[in-house]
């Protein structure tokens, strides 16, 4: 009964236009007061403070700040030039270069929309000029940008790890494997599409020209090398790596590339602070909700409800729940609200928590391009000046590819657990 009241209140507040964190808090507080255990209400704000009072949580705002700096500079353009210099001469080369550039950009930013804004305006006109349809170009860029959520240091992966007390390093490695599969599938599709349409590749560059493009992008490539190498080499914790990423991005963009004045750092900080504040409030509200659901033994009830289901059936249910939620709410909200509900049930079904993390992050990445409310759809409308209908039609083939990748990740766990297993 109390869960139905909580959900009803949350949905009603969403319908009237309230922010998600207010919907979560309204449902939590009202049901806690009406149906909760006889403990002081002061415990709710205490739990909210505890939810954001974590050293490891600092990695998220720091990576968001680093992503904002990177998106304002020249790192994106240098990555595009580097990728094109090596694969531009093969069939579908420019489209493949776009995918690789988005993957590399994701390894630096951890946030998908940043790649759309930074790389999209650079490659979209070139793709259309070379013969790719506008729909393919929009769909490719909008979808490939979600690689940032899977490839370390994805913010969604950090959030999942904090929600479940899992190893961030292991989640990163599982995401790297999932992102590699997705990258390969997108590249293959780009090759087949270009071959079927007879799109001519560009001239093959000499090794001297390739080395020149590499030198230009060398400082940009150093960011994921130092960040991930520092984490797995034991030099950094993820939080320290995030702080290093901020300093490194500032030095590269402001001093080495001189692509932005130091005054833009304050603008980036101002822009990032709004995103960070919303996310931290959401995490605090989600912590209160999780606490109430735990007191009410809702996760145990979900586990009991799914006790008769096989592992494959539980995986299917988890995918359906997250795919549906991704159509309507943002990835961070989906992870914060839904993960505590299904986590115990997944463990009881024998699902590895690292494998589960890869599945959930792949689902929320798909949600970024899923109509009606996928965030990347609206960013694509603004970036490429196309209609909502055009961007939705553009991403439909790529949603099919993402569902294929999701099926591989879900039902062949070895492909994402192999690399974490080595650690």
TrEMBL record:
It is a multi-pass membrane protein. Residues 11-414 form the TRAP C4-dicarboxylate transport system permease DctM subunit domain. It comes from the Bacteria. The keyword Phosphoprotein does not apply. One of its GO terms (cellular component) is plasma membrane. The chain crosses the membrane at residues 6-35, 55-75, 95-124, 136-162, 168-192, 213-235, 241-260, 272-293, 305-326, 333-351, 357-379, 391-419. Pfam families: DctM. It is found in: Cell inner membrane. One of its GO terms (molecular function) is transmembrane transporter activity. Keywords: Cell inner membrane, Cell membrane, Membrane, Transmembrane, Transmembrane helix, Transport. The complex comprises the extracytoplasmic solute receptor protein and the two transmembrane proteins. Part of the tripartite ATP-independent periplasmic (TRAP) transport system. Belongs to the TRAP transporter large permease family. This is TRAP transporter large permease protein. It comes from Hoeflea phototrophica (strain DSM 17068 / NCIMB 14078 / DFL-43).
């Amino acid at each position: 009964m109390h869960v139905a009241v909580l959900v009803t209140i949350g949905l009603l507040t969403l319908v009237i236009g309230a922010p998600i964190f207010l919907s979560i808090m309204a449902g939590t507080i009202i049901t806690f007061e009406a149906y909760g255990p006889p403990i002081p209400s002061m415990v709710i704000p205490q739990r909210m403070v505890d939810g954001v009072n974590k050293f490891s949580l600092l990695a998220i705002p720091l990576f968001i700040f680093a992503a904002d700096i990177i998106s304002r500079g020249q790192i994106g353009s240098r990555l595009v030039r580097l990728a094109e210099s090596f694969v531009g001469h093969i069939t579908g080369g420019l489209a493949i270069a776009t995918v690789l550039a988005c993957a590399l950009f994701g390894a630096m930013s951890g946030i998908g929309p940043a790649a759309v804004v930074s790389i999209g305006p650079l490659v979209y006109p070139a793709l259309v000029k070379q013969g790719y349809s506008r729909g393919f170009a929009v769909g490719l860029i909008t979808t490939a940008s979600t690689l940032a959520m899977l490839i370390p240091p994805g913010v969604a992966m950090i959030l999942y790890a904090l929600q479940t007390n899992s190893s961030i390093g292991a989640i990163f490695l599982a995401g790297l494997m999932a992102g590699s599969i997705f990258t390969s599938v997108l590249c293959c599709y780009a090759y087949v599409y270009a071959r079927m349409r007879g799109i001519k590749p560009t001239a093959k560059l000499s090794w001297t020209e390739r080395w020149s493009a590499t030198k230009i992008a060398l400082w940009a490539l150093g960011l994921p090398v130092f960040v991930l190498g520092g984490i797995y080499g034991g030099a950094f914790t993820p939080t320290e790596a995030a702080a290093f990423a901020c300093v490194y991005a500032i030095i590269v963009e402001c001093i080495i590339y001189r692509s932005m004045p130091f005054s833009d750092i304050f603008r980036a900080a101002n822009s990032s602070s709004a995103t960070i504040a919303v996310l931290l409030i959401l995490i605090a509200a989600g912590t209160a909700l999780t606490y109430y659901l735990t007191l009410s033994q809702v996760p145990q009830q979900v586990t009991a409800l799914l006790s008769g289901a096989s592992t494959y059936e539980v995986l299917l249910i988890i995918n359906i729940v997250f795919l549906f939620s991704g159509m309507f709410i943002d990835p961070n909200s989906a992870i914060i609200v839904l993960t505590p509900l299904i986590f115990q049930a997944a463990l009881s079904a024998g699902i590895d928590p690292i494998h589960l993390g890869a599945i959930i992050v792949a689902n929320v990445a798909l949600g970024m391009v899923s109509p009606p409310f996928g965030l990347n759809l609206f960013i694509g409308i603004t970036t490429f000046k196309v209609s909502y209908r055009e961007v939705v039609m553009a991403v439909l083939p790529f949603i099919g590819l993402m569902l294929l990748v999701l099926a591989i990740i879900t039902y062949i766990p070895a492909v994402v657990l192999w690399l974490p297993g080595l650690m």
